[in-house]
Amino acid sequence: MARKNIKDLKRNEAGIAAAVGILKQRFGEKFKTSLSLREQHSHTTTYLRSQLPDAVVWPQTTQEVSDIVKICAEHKVPVIPFGTGTSLEGGVNAPAGGISIDLQEMNAIISVNAEDLDVCVEAGVTRESLNQHLRDKGLFFPVDPGANASLGGMASTRASGTNAVRYGTMRENVIAVTAVMADGRIIKTANRARKSSSGYDLTRVLVGSEGTLGIITELTIRLHGIPEAIAAGLCFFPTVEDACNTTILAMQSGIGMARIELMDVDAVASVNRYSKLDLPLQILLLLEFHGSQDGVREQQKSFGEIAEEFGGSDFQWAESTEERTRLWTARHNCYWALKAEAGEKEFLTTDVCVPISHLAECVTQTQKDISDAGLYGPIIGHVGDGNFHAALAVDLDDREEIAKAEEVAEKIVMRALSMDGTCTGEHGIGQGKINFAAIEHGDGIDFMHAIKMALDPDNIMNPGKLFAV
Amino acid sequence: MARKNIKDLKRNEAGIAAAVGILKQRFGEKFKTSLSLREQHSHTTTYLRSQLPDAVVWPQTTQEVSDIVKICAEHKVPVIPFGTGTSLEGGVNAPAGGISIDLQEMNAIISVNAEDLDVCVEAGVTRESLNQHLRDKGLFFPVDPGANASLGGMASTRASGTNAVRYGTMRENVIAVTAVMADGRIIKTANRARKSSSGYDLTRVLVGSEGTLGIITELTIRLHGIPEAIAAGLCFFPTVEDACNTTILAMQSGIGMARIELMDVDAVASVNRYSKLDLPLQILLLLEFHGSQDGVREQQKSFGEIAEEFGGSDFQWAESTEERTRLWTARHNCYWALKAEAGEKEFLTTDVCVPISHLAECVTQTQKDISDAGLYGPIIGHVGDGNFHAALAVDLDDREEIAKAEEVAEKIVMRALSMDGTCTGEHGIGQGKINFAAIEHGDGIDFMHAIKMALDPDNIMNPGKLFAV
Lengths: 469, 469
Prior knowledge:
The structure is a homodimer. By secondary structure, the first copy, chain A, is an alpha+beta fold. The first copy, chain A, folds into 4 domains: 6-104 and 446-455, 2-Layer Sandwich (Uridine Diphospho-n-acetylenolpyruvylglucosamine Reductase, domain 2), CATH 3.30.43.10; 109-225, Uridine Diphospho-n-acetylenolpyruvylglucosamine Reductase, domain 3, CATH 3.30.465; 229-335, Alpha-Beta Plaits; 337-427, 2-Layer Sandwich (Alpha-Beta Plaits). Chain A is built from 17 helices and 18 strands. In chain A, strand 8 (174-181) and strand 9 form a beta hairpin. In chain A, helix 1 (13-27) packs antiparallel against helix 3 and helix 10 packs across helix 13. Chains A and B meet through strand 9, helix 8, strand 11, helix 9 and helix 11 of A and strand 9, helix 8, strand 11, helix 9 and helix 11 of B.
């Protein structure tokens, strides 16, 4: 089970040339090798360096994905699945070249099973387009990472977002996937039953595997009824610690929050500017409650009492749907707001997740690390889950600043691990956190790698991600 | 990835003799080879034939489990983990002999993290003893299969029970496990963070793997606050279809039932006799609602309106805690009630799970199969999940009756699969459903087996389960 160093990844020039020739012939207009498209398909939204694939192909069906993988398998050429390209950890980079498989044209909503609260979609469907489609059915899909990501990509990185505290992450919301495996075979991991004890949980083997075991081409996912009543509100706190302690106590009291989001003052300031809001420049908790009319009122009251204990402001409630949408859109655009704030700089983002009892301490110490290093690094978080992000702005021409940011990022992760947490709550490992994953999992990483080698012996499935191979 | 026929499983006599000698020396009083203990450790509660291990060992620590597995690995001797021996699919049988590792003495509750709503336990802790321990903390662990099973065994079979409709199964409630792998190495699959995107989901690789990939020795599992208000009640229906349709509509309406259990008339009759109740001999839904006082009242009202539409009786509410406990104890003892009813006969039990839209049809047709075959086969089910059980009584000396029961069981499973369901909702594959798993998963079973071969190349971990190897 020995792992090789990341430097061992070599381009297979002859294989790539052969595969490119065959695929060009086979896919015609749906196969491109232009530099701009290859650049676009290795864009990682972060400070990580782009590594271009040799070509991009746009399959229309699972069978076409299978055909592509079979051709690449024969010639031992890497395949890199591409959804919307919003990975924060270099997930779509092609360190040994190969073929980017862009699934955006596989965007059919195959069947909505309203009575079973599930839907089958192709992997290229984005979360926003799915919810648009579902709106008049009284149903919604809750998992909402910052980007309008594709559902296939979200499954691959085990994404979550603001609703996870109530509705779970992709781990809980994916019922089954159809995937093309490394030999080109197509499997469906499960039927539509809500639960099953039938064999290994291949669904959850693939969810979070970041394209390294198979390419997800279709998904069956859980839907939820749009609640009878929704109330969103803002509550401001004197310190991050107060906001975290309010969150902790509210979670422990079993108040069923649907969303509970933290923004520090830097984040609030940039959101104000980007989304033209005028929120007070204080530590913010942005909340949402779902339920019956009475249920939501109960939750609001209970939460308000806890917030008051920790010096929280009176609530500002977003009464109308429009106002609520405006607030959450601003929250979802937070990453772009920070980007705008950072001007020419890029971001080294990190996200960690700790048991909620450690949250206040973890966030407070992280803030101190960032300010001690003299960096601009707003903190935002899905604090109901104990999950938060730090976005550290770095000038790509300033090697010293990059080194400083990397040092802070390492401190953040090592602290989270020391608090019984994880090196990433929702962004994934990609290239950026390979070493941290190895530290987090100890011998476990060897067993992960054994699974990788068993299912993809030639290492053609998104190589150079998750493992130092 | 070729799979061998189950007949290829051979006893490794020399290896077993060597391992038995070494283990006897090493474990002294905690190692036994008496026939009665070996019989007890292959008792499967069902009609499946017992296959005895060569010895039973009672480790006290994870390190001791590791020592045992290392000795067995060196001599290529099977290890079969044993919790409470309540598998319904031959999970603890030893078709090629080997060592039964009884984890019941590893029964420490290591740490209750009340503020994080989780607990770390050793694998031998039973669900009832955990809940006893938690009672005065206002917390509980919801997963409740019929038996008072061990939590390690429950994780291994991805167990669920009556609360799964609201709280999920072991899949959702296990945060991390410590496991001894086939080479004796000890891994911990995750820390205590509520969510993580860090690498493959080894937790869920092991949950449901039935001891074929590793032996779970410790678990971190999620706890839930005991709700402010609980209401349990009985509602009787003219037909199974009416009861199922009530369930379907209640689920679709988003009424947050905590439990919704179906019993057919045969099941009600035997529960009456066994638990000394006097329930009317009609189709029964046994329900429970959790929430705030107001929330529970809302749920009761909404459910009552739906039940009325389908001819449901007025509710009989169990007002006191004692009355509620009595009802649910009767439900949990249902299997033993049926056993008592069946006299000398044994049971061929099967459990399937279908999308809820197919539930009424699936249960109704199953009832017809059973009565057409002239068998005694009560149906009970966790119908909120689309999951139900049929227990077919068979005289072990009557080969014709066994053949009839097997034919009916096959029909039940094949119908569930044709309805986009699974061949087992919560019992697992074990030995009894190996062929059905192969049908359900198609090529997927090859990838499961590739994982098995990668993590356990000598096939010493509970061999002869899940796969026809």
